[in-house]
Design brief:
The chain is mainly alpha-helical. The chain is built from 2 helices and no strands.
């Protein structure tokens, strides 16, 4: 998902064997959110606080 390429049907079916449909949706959403935050943070040089 972070490569911005479609997930193949074969990969999605493999994942469905190991995770319930709801968890796959949650996982896809979380990966997308983290990726979006990184797209903002990297060019802005955002870093966590040092303290």
């Amino acid at each position: 998902m972070t490569r911005r390429e479609p997930v193949s049907d074969e990969l999605w079916e493999t994942l469905r064997k190991h995770y319930p449909e709801r968890e796959l949706g949650d996982l896809a959403g979380l990966v997308s959110l983290i990726n979006a935050l990184n797209l903002f943070g990297v060019p802005l040089h955002l870093r966590p606080p040092l303290d």
